[in-house]
Amino acid sequence: MLTNPSQILLRNSDLFVDQEVLVLNYEADLLPKRLLEFANRVEALALDYHHHLQLQPHGGDRLNCSFGHKLPHEASFDTVVIYFPKAKPLAPYLFNLAATHLKPGGRLLVVGENKGGIKSLPKLLPDYFAPAMKRDNARHCLLYSSQLTAKAPAIALQDWVSQYELETPQGQISICNLVGVFSEKRLDPGTQLLLAHLPTLTGRVLDFGCGAGVITAALLKAQPELALECIDINAMALASCELTLAANGMQAKVYPSDGLAQVEGKFAGIISNPPFHDGLQSTTDIATRFVSESNQRLLPAGVWQIVANRHLPYSDTIAAQFGKVSVTAENNKYKLYYYRHPG
After folding, report:
1. Gap between the Cα atoms of 255 and 111, Å rounded
2. Which of 54, 62, 70, 125 is least surrounded, with the fewest CB atoms within 10 Å of its CB?
3. 262 vs 59: CA distance, rounded Å
4. From the CB of residue 49, how many other CB atoms can be counted at a distance below 10 Å?
């Protein structure tokens, strides 16, 4: 089943005939594979690890699949497709990335849902592209086309980073935040509650949904001997976390994981301010699966602690998995859930 933006691309299949195509930030479907019916070759770069895992088994000589914030190699394409990002600040980065991989005069296609901000594209497109032209309008989506008219600046990650100092209960830390990664340039109330009641931990600790690395950096500030592992599904978040660690002179293992599927072994601690948004929709599915999987990942006497919006129905899920619910702190918006594995 193709998403609505993918369907509008497919109905404009004439644009891909005999083309070398790069697809950036694609969605949870197999559109890049479908493009092989028309294109000579397709390269697909996912910024969402779950999307990458769905497409990767279909890779081959004519379809190359990558995950990350950039391609792992240099290549040029006749056409680059961008799925307009849900996080609008990420769009200029994707435009720059697309331009560095387009052949001179190459075509840019940008597709997205009307409610996702795609209507602002003509104002956002940088001046090394021709003015955007509306190509199609269907299924509550828009498809724009443009052409590379000038050489784009080389893309450098440091040009897309916002670095700032953050006061935490554990002390001051430096945060490096890439475009498209949630950040308020202050300690958000949920993380504030979590860090204010951080347990003393030992050994191997997992930060689930690490984002820009705020929780990890605070943990290592207070307990530098910890062996931290940081996982996220978002490529820009993982890159942000690595930059944050470097800015603070800290070390941790940072890698993508779809839930806990790519995590090995068990932990003495699992800490999280879990994500509850999937695209434009609020969902508890991510956190519910995380709770279920966590129960199998704790060592004896291991500590599990998360903070969550109090209106989200985690209590029943936690009780079903762990046998009880301990709310160790709360305020008018958040609850802090705590569990210690018996042993």
Report:
1. 29
2. 62
3. 20
4. 23
pLDDT, tens only, 146-158: 999 999 999 999 9
- Indicate the pTM of the whole model: 0.94
Handedness of CA 214, 217, 221, 225 (dihedral sign): positive
DSSP 17-69: TT-EEEEES--SS-HHHHGGGT-SEEEEEESBHHHHHHHGGG--SSEEEEESS
Query: What burial class does residue 35 get, using C-beta atoms within 10 Å of its C-beta: 0-12 exposed, 13-18 middle, 19+ buried?
Result: buried
Whole-angstrom distance, CA of residue 103 vs CA of residue 49? 27
Q: What is the pLDDT, as a whole number, of residue 281?
A: 46
C-alpha to C-alpha distance for 337 and 316, rounded to whole angstroms:
12
The owner of tokens 């709770």 is 291
CA distance linking residue 241 with residue 174, whole number of Å? 11
Characterise 193 by phi-psi region: left (phi > 0), alpha (psi -120 to 50), beta (else).
alpha
Other CB atoms within a 10 A radius of the CB of residue 274 amount to 19
DSSP 132-195: PEEEEEETTEEEEEEEB-SPPPPP-GGGGEEEEEEEETTEEEEEEEETTS---SS--HHHHHHH
Q: Which residues are CB-contacts of 204 (< 8 A; sequence separation ≥ 6)? A: 226, 227, 229, 265, 266, 267, 268, 269
- At what angle are helices 314-322 and 285-294 packed, to 10 degrees? 20
- Mapped onto helix, strand or coil, the DSSP state of residue 211 is coil
Mark residue 81 as left, alpha or beta (left: phi above 0; alpha: psi -120 to 50; beta: remaining).
beta
Q: How are beta strands 20-24 and 77-83 bridged, if at all?
A: parallel
Phi then psi for residue 318, to 5 deg, are: -65, -45
Q: Extract the residue ranges of the chain whose pLDDT is less than 70.
A: 276-284, 287
Place of tokens 């331009």: 99
Give residue 182's pLDDT: 81
